[in-house]
Write a structure and sequence with these properties.
Blueprint (H helix, E strand, L loop, with lengths): L3 H13 L9 H18 L5 H33 L1
Pathway: Cofactor biosynthesis; ubiquinone biosynthesis
Keywords: Cytoplasm, Ubiquinone biosynthesis
Protein name: Ubiquinone biosynthesis accessory factor UbiK
């Protein structure tokens, strides 16, 4: 769901931009930043790209079936009106 590599990259960028005096604590800061970012991302109501694509495919197939059923209903309605 959440790409840990991206979280590590963001945490590393944050720690790399710290002033030199603070860099001594960079390892601990990086780990804490990673934990905070992960916790905040877990609170978001999001789905993975893979899950989104699966649902998109399901929706497309459902739409195709609905259109086929609608065509059948229209055909039957036309037959009944004759």
């Amino acid at each position: 769901m959440i790409n840990p590599k991206k979280i590590e990259e963001v945490a590393k960028q944050i720690s790399d931009n710290l002033p030199n005096g603070v860099k001594q604590m960079a390892g601990e800061f990086e780990e804490k930043s990673k934990q905070i970012i992960q916790n905040q991302l877990m609170k978001l109501d999001v789905v993975s790209r893979e899950e989104f694509e699966v649902q998109q495919h399901v929706l497309l197939r459902t739409r195709e079936k609905l259109e086929a059923l609608q065509a059948q209903v229209d055909e039957l309605a036309a037959k009944l009106t004759k």
